[in-house]
Amino acid sequence: MAERPEDAPNPPKLARRAPVTEKVAIETEQPEVVDKVAALLGKWAEEDR
């Protein structure tokens, strides 16, 4: 284990998501699904900043 943070190996970068080429609407009447998807999209948007 590295003693100092600067000695620690960099974690591998995740592959960048491909640009959106097609938009697909997903229909659901389950609000918990909508909430989870919205949370993931918000998380990804924050990570991309």
From TrEMBL:
<feature type="region of interest" description="Disordered">
    <location>
        <begin position="1"/>
        <end position="20"/>
    </location>
</feature>
<protein>
    <submittedName>
        <fullName>Uncharacterized protein</fullName>
    </submittedName>
</protein>
